[in-house]
Design a protein that fits this description.
Helix content is 21%, strand content 27%. It has 245 residues and is α/β, with parallel strands linked by helices. The strands form 2 sheets. Strands 6-5-4-3-2-1-14 form a 7-stranded mixed sheet. Helix 4 links the parallel strand 5 and strand 6. Helix 6 crosses helix 7. It is globular, with a radius of gyration of 17 Å. It binds zinc ion (2 copies). The site of one zinc ion (ZN) has 7 residues, from helix 2.
Length: 245
């Protein structure tokens, strides 16, 4: 499977970029993960909106769902322009009823996921872990049967991440804070929190994401590297990660 980072800022997008949004591809199937602010604009540098097969959401904070409305408009316009009548499924939890209901529009349909079960979307099997965050949010363990990617979405540190991330090929962590800060009250992690999970879970590679707009973000890599000795990537638009066994 192939991951492409589209948006990676926490809270709001820095100029010319977007908040949380990732594309995961396998055999031509494209799963979009979260749809943050600016995501639809940046996405079109890499894919046609109509190429997206499914979208899954971790939670309903603006920096993860801000572009849902404009995605719905894009699909509506495309239905006139190229006659596309495909309905895009948007998988999400229903613990925010109002948020969930907004996912259904002319060419999108909200589909509830059961966080206790295994969700099959195209070639991907997904399990969930409830995160530690001010609103209900779910991290995801995604496999195509060959490799495993874990996405913490938004969370402060909790031990449960270690078991959930065990032996993953890639761990994408919420890295909204620097080592010397405390992210726990805000529901986010530091560079050290994410690196500790990566180390204890024995993952192969770590991708630091949901980044702060202040400070020198390269420091996050240096800090994480004091704990985790595997390969560490810093999220940026267009960064790709691919595993084929
Ligand atoms: Zn966020
Ligand atoms: Zn959040």
């Amino acid at each position: 499977m192939k991951l492409t980072v589209i948006g990676y800022w926490g809270g709001f997008p820095a100029p010319e970029s977007a908040t949380s949004c990732y594309l995961l591809e396998k055999n031509g199937f494209i799963l979009m993960i979260d749809a943050g602010s600016g995501a639809l604009s940046r996405l079109q540098k890499y894919k046609d909106v109509l190429d997206i097969d499914a979208l899954i959401l971790s939670h309903y904070h603006h920096d993860h769902v801000a572009d849902i409305g404009v995605l719905q408009y894009a699909l509506l316009v495309q239905s006139y322009v190229v006659g596309s009548k495909d309905i895009l499924p948007i998988y999400a939890h229903t613990e925010d009823r109002e948020g969930f209901e907004k996912l259904t529009h002319e060419y999108t349909e909200g589909v509830a996921y059961d966080s206790d079960g295994v969700l099959e979307i195209g070639p991907f099997s997904i399990t969930f872990l409830k995160t530690k965050h001010p609103v209900p949010c779910y991290g995801m363990r995604i496999t195509d049967g060959e490799s495993v990617l874990v996405y913490t979405a938004d969370t402060s540190y909790q031990d449960e991440w270690i078991e959930f991330s065990k032996e993953a090929d890639l761990l994408i962590t919420d890295c909204n804070f620097y080592a010397e800060q405390d992210g726990s009250q805000a529901g986010h992690m530091t560079s050290i929190d994410g690196a500790s999970i990566a180390k204890e879970a024995n993952v192969k590679e770590l991708l630091l994401s949901h980044l702060p707009q202040y400070g020198d973000i390269q420091d996050l890599v240096t800090q994480a590297g004091t704990v985790f000795k595997g390969e560490i990537h810093l999220a940026q638009e267009g960064l790709t990660w691919q595993r084929e066994k």
